[in-house]
Design goal:
This protein has about 425 residues and is mainly beta. Helix content is about 0%, strand content about 45%.
Length: about 425
């Protein structure tokens, strides 16, 4: 049975370790919300990327056909309704003002604006899956309006799944400046998307590795409701979960609330979303929704309490929040808290010797966590005669968690630094 590291910590450190001290952090998107900020609960801000550098993006997984638009900067997409792909050379935009606009899903990353007409496998919206070749063959023309107002016709011709390449053609509506791109997504498979700028005919590499961040502070289009309950798409500023990250929202609760299991975790990308704040016309500033607590299960498996406390608005796009490690839950099946590990001296100053029983020689990875869940030290070295000698400097006094992984096993223990 998989052990819960939160339970192990409680056994080792007493119940006071179940909840660490809150840590205040912030992210800044810049004036006018100009950038996306990729954030890791363990490591803080991972990357800040300008948003206006791309128009469309392709889900980088080899077996995906997901294509999104940059709705955060006002990019608009409609399906060409006056013909099929045979009409490429004679586009007629009569009635286009009434054509349905297509937006990215606000719950699933892979379900992009180009996929919104999908009818289910083998129909992926922009094209049909071929059972023999495993390719997706484009069957639709789109009209895309860029953030600068320029309009282009666009045809996603195919996705070669085996080679992970997309072929697409775009041009001005009158057929001028036609360009065909064969985009290879293979070099970007360790990221969610590979991005493309239609104005300069260029791939844009703007995203950090997908396993390095948990949430993103960004602008996106979602459904909002007016006072009569009527829905409409609207561009908002908020927080989206990475693929593989889950969260829940708890309201109304006291700020000391820590029961992250009170509600099931949801892996939709907009669980945190944008509704944790609202604009107050009296103070002409943003107010944080009171009595709201989020819990986020990060890619590491660790659970954090996330509470926004301030939002500046478009002047600098700054969000201040507290994060608090609630549970360390990601542990290998063979984790142990028995006498398989011994740490000496403990308390220590800058050096410890760790003995791993039954481990004569192996490569070990050691991580040292503070009580906020942040990795403050890590190293990889061979176990020599069942022992590891670890030297570290400049660690503040306090309680830490040691986690060692070697040969499919995970060992944990406490360490006091003085």
């Amino acid at each position: 049975m998989k052990l819960n590291l939160f339970f192990l910590l409680a056994l080792m450190f007493s119940s006071t370790l179940a909840i660490s001290n809150p840590v205040t952090d912030s992210t800044t998107m810049g004036g006018g919300y100009a950038s996306d900020v990729f954030y890791s609960f363990e490591n803080g801000v991972i990357a800040t990327s300008e948003r206006n550098t791309w128009d469309i993006a392709f889900y980088a997984n080899r077996w995906s056909a997901g294509i999104i638009t940059n709705g955060g900067i006002g990019t608009q997409l409609v399906t060409y309704e006056n013909g099929d792909t045979s009409s490429w050379n004679a586009i007629d935009t009569t009635g286009m003002a009434d054509w349905k606009r297509l937006y990215n899903s606000d719950s699933i990353w892979e379900d992009g604006a180009f996929n919104r007409n999908a009818m289910g496998h083998p129909d992926y919206g922009w094209g049909m899956y071929n059972m023999v070749s495993h390719d997706v063959v484009g069957d639709s023309i789109y009209i895309i309006t860029l953030a600068n107002g320029a309009k282009k016709k666009l045809w996603i011709e195919s996705k070669n799944s085996v080679n992970n390449t997309y072929t697409f053609t775009y041009a001005n509506l009158d057929g001028t400046n036609e360009y065909t791109e064969v985009l290879d997504a293979t070099p970007y498979e360790d990221k969610l998307f590979v991005y493309y700028n239609l104005s300069i005919s260029s791939i844009i590499d703007r995203e950090p590795l997908k396993n390095s961040w948990d949430i993103i502070f960004t602008r996106y289009v979602t459904t909002v409701f007016d006072n009569e309950g009527n829905p409409s798409p609207y561009t908002v500023v908020g927080v989206l979960n990475n693929v593989g990250v889950a969260a829940n929202k708890n309201y109304p609760v006291d700020e000391s609330f820590t029961d992250w299991t009170a509600k099931p975790m949801d892996d939709a990308k907009t669980v945190i979303g944008h509704n944790w704040k609202y604009f107050d016309m009296n103070s002409f500033s943003y107010v944080i929704e009171d009595s709201t607590v989020f819990f986020v299960q990060a890619l590491s498996g660790n659970v954090y309490k996330f509470v926004p406390t301030y939002f500046s608005g478009q002047s600098e796009g700054k969000t201040i929040f507290t994060k608090e490690l609630i549970s360390l839950v990601s542990v290998d099946e063979n984790s142990t808290i028995d006498n398989s590990i011994a740490v000496f001296p403990n308390p220590a100053k800058d050096h410890v010797r760790i003995t791993l029983n039954n481990q004569i020689s192996a490569m070990a990875e050691l991580q040292l966590f503070d009580l906020s869940g942040r990795i403050v030290y890590q190293t990889q070295q061979p176990v020599a005669n069942g022992m590891l000698d670890i030297r570290f400097d400049n660690l503040q006094s306090g309680l830490y968690l040691i986690r060692i992984q070697t040969e499919g096993q995970t060992f944990t223990d406490k360490l006091m630094i003085r």
